[in-house]
């Protein structure tokens, strides 16, 4: 699948492969070198190098733009491809650790490369593991296990949410309860069939975990101001997993970035933006937002979704 995808923009390039013996079909792939590691590593690097706790908006726009270009190629093929001439590719496992980063002109403008196509397939793909769902639980869309190309768009929205709030839109507290129950039951049996059943049950339970989308255009003070005093106390003293989606700093992103993130995180697939919509609508807006940020201008968005300078 990676061989088919490698001609696309912002997709890691395969340079060659080597057959591993004696395991039939087991190969080592040689990929282009991305010296900044994955996006998880790069996020930490930006924090350290710039002595900041948040991810700058300019960087988030660059990530969003490049991932959207990669998805547009996977889902619709090269430019000018006729409908029906391209069999769409669905990545199925987009997350920070599967996005590689190579140096760009500045720290805010790196090259983004979508990687790890081990779970990729076509929209009617049935995963060979027999699991009802594939991918990483907290990046999977609400419509699982019936995932198609719209699930990739959801995952990209999750990446943006994670960059802004340090967590994807997922109820981590409920997931921890399910995971601890699964881990305890799994440790109490050595039966392989039982372990597989427990794993399948765990994945099915994860399907029902609520998605928790939070706006990224609020600072922590603004976020807390929307809560009652009782809620505020629970927020301040709750466990770390329950605080995953609360802004951690007095920094708010633009309303236009929030709006485009939410278009990728619509609960119903039919309401969610496509990669083509992100390319035609979000990218022009994002480029104007980046230009405004680089000039130090205040900007907002008008009723037509266009950037206006303050």
UniProtKB/TrEMBL annotation:
<dbReference type="InterPro" id="IPR011009">
    <property type="entry name" value="Kinase-like_dom_sf"/>
</dbReference>
<dbReference type="InterPro" id="IPR008271">
    <property type="entry name" value="Ser/Thr_kinase_AS"/>
</dbReference>
<dbReference type="GO" id="GO:0000045">
    <property type="term" value="P:autophagosome assembly"/>
</dbReference>
<keyword id="KW-0547">Nucleotide-binding</keyword>
<dbReference type="GO" id="GO:0000422">
    <property type="term" value="P:autophagy of mitochondrion"/>
</dbReference>
<dbReference type="Pfam" id="PF00069">
    <property type="entry name" value="Pkinase"/>
</dbReference>
<keyword id="KW-0067">ATP-binding</keyword>
<protein>
    <recommendedName>
        <fullName>non-specific serine/threonine protein kinase</fullName>
        <ecNumber>2.7.11.1</ecNumber>
    </recommendedName>
</protein>
<dbReference type="GO" id="GO:0005524">
    <property type="term" value="F:ATP binding"/>
</dbReference>
<dbReference type="GO" id="GO:0061709">
    <property type="term" value="P:reticulophagy"/>
</dbReference>
<keyword id="KW-0808">Transferase</keyword>
<dbReference type="GO" id="GO:0034045">
    <property type="term" value="C:phagophore assembly site membrane"/>
</dbReference>
<dbReference type="GO" id="GO:0034727">
    <property type="term" value="P:piecemeal microautophagy of the nucleus"/>
</dbReference>
<dbReference type="GO" id="GO:0005776">
    <property type="term" value="C:autophagosome"/>
</dbReference>
<feature type="domain" description="Protein kinase">
    <location>
        <begin position="1"/>
        <end position="285"/>
    </location>
</feature>
<dbReference type="InterPro" id="IPR000719">
    <property type="entry name" value="Prot_kinase_dom"/>
</dbReference>
<dbReference type="GO" id="GO:0010506">
    <property type="term" value="P:regulation of autophagy"/>
</dbReference>
<keyword id="KW-0418">Kinase</keyword>
<keyword id="KW-0072">Autophagy</keyword>
<keyword id="KW-0723">Serine/threonine-protein kinase</keyword>
<dbReference type="GO" id="GO:0004674">
    <property type="term" value="F:protein serine/threonine kinase activity"/>
</dbReference>
<dbReference type="GO" id="GO:0005829">
    <property type="term" value="C:cytosol"/>
</dbReference>
<dbReference type="GO" id="GO:0042594">
    <property type="term" value="P:response to starvation"/>
</dbReference>
<dbReference type="InterPro" id="IPR045269">
    <property type="entry name" value="Atg1-like"/>
</dbReference>
